[in-house]
Amino acid sequence: MNIRYPYQKTEYNLYHMPAKKLIAPFYERLALTLIGFLALGYLIIVGKDILDPLIFGFIFAILLLPVSNFLEKKLRLPRSMSSLVSILLMVALVGSILYLVGSQISNLANDWPMLKNQVIQSLHDLQEWIQSAIHINASSQLKYVNDASKKIMASGTDVVGTTFGAISSLMIFYVFILIFTFFILLYRRLLLRFIIWVFRDENSHVVMDIVENIQSILRQYILGLLLEMAIVASVAITIFWWIGIKYAVLLGIIVGLFNIIPYIGIFTALLLSAIITFATGNIGKTITVIVSVISIHAVDANFLLPTIVGSKVRLNALISFIGIIVGEMVWGLSGMFLSIPVIAIFKIIFDRIESLKPWGYLLGGDNEDNKVAVPKIEVE
């Protein structure tokens, strides 16, 4: 069937016209992407109570998978028993660290009278400085302190109740993490077969590549963080002991533990170290501790972190910082911990799906390590 349109010399055959691929306009695709992000963000916020411990359980399961495989293959333990023993070993390791920190805190509690006198003397010196610098007499300062104390005591019952509720929720959260870790280790083969089945057999090699890379990179990332934490804590303990800080071990462990919180942990460790040192020493040692913590963080950020951890998860600093902020806004402290591993998982997936490779390139950054085929575009 041929048709000749008016004022046109060419005839078109309707049965042999090439089919054109319909592509939605950019603004339509952008709108759908934004709607998808908003819907995903809403589901993440609503499902925090189950997704938060589930993701932690997934990460711990990846970390414990070699231990579980060793117990299952070498010691001939059934899968349920190997999974349980792996979790018990992890709990024992974490418990030993908590015991070490708790023993140091108990020693700090034994010196409470000395700390109290130090704080009182420091407050007295601060009171005299305020009176001389701002010209607020001691009686007015005491009135402000007494009013604040009365308000705190009036709400003491609420504070105790809130604290007890928070501790109870935290313990339940940890129990859920252990339960999820156990079940993911126990049913790991079923979950893997389900994922391969969902994405069909012709995509099984891509799915297996993604799964293997997620396991490898996350495991190396977590072990790298633990190694970095141990090195930073050891260096901090050595420096504090050499300076003559009374609670050098406690402060070193605090610096090492909080160091695994990106960007924000250093400020928390700096504040706690300065307060404890000032309460047990003098202003000179406090300044020395502050300078030491900042120096340790500078060496860690420029040498240890890129060497030990940075080579495992190739994310640019901008995306990492935005992810940490968004994680804290959505899930609080746990969101800050999970932001980097979750972004790393997305990068692994994006890098292996053709249509999503630009997003993987964005997460990795414009450097030699981000080995993605990028169109040659001249950019100043």
Describe this structure in words.
With 380 residues, the chain is an all-alpha fold. It is 78% helix and 2% strand. The chain is built from 14 helices and two strands. The protein has a two-stranded antiparallel sheet. Helix 2 crosses helix 3, helix 2 packs across helix 13 and helix 7 packs across helix 8. The C terminus is likely disordered.
Question: How are the elements arranged and paired?
Answer:
Layout (H helix, E strand, L loop, with lengths): L1 E3 L6 E3 L12 H21 L1 H26 L5 H32 L1 H22 L4 H17 L1 H31 L1 H11 L5 H40 L4 H11 L6 H16 L2 H28 L6 H15 L1 H19 L5 H8 L16
Antiparallel strand pairs: 1-2
Helix pairs in contact: 2-3, 2-6, 2-13, 3-6, 7-8, 8-9, 8-11, 8-13, 9-10, 10-11, 12-13, 13-14
